[in-house]
Amino acid sequence: MPALNFSAEEILPELLKFFDTEGKEGKNQTIRILKEEIPDTPEDTYYEDAMGADFHKKPRLKVGDEVTLYWKQRTSPKDSWFCRRCGALKYSGKLMYGMVVIEKTKPECDCGVRYDFPQKLGKVKITEVFEIDMDNHNIKSTSGWRGEKINILARMDGFKNASFMFRWFDKQYDLSTPKRFAVYRWEWIK
Q: Domain check: are 57 and 133 in the same one?
């Protein structure tokens, strides 16, 4: 089963709200960069550029795919638990004989939050996939994203508004030149 990994603390409250309410509220999409593919030969590049070809990879998920969502899957031990307020690793543990055995305690935060959440957040089903081009203050797509629609896109992705979203993506991907992204929307699987 495919997986999507999250690590941006800015979207954590909305991501947790989605799972706490079983999909009734909160983040219900993600925006992922589509990397450029390098053609095999310089001749291919010249020919394809002349034809106006697109060298971006296609979105890896399709409508109907079931996906497992994780928090910090790539940088944390398996079966980790995290702070609900700041997203920092609290501990990792294994379930043995019906009990959680703590393998490693790593208190990285002083939030004092007693409620933690697991690394594996749950499963969703992809309901919509489309591509957008984004620079540091605008989104271009065949769907015609403009004005308030950009704020809706940002809120569905877990950001407070479009300016927070543009700032975060610019910091991650340098949007001084437009970049291509895939937008994946989902629904909760019980």
A: yes
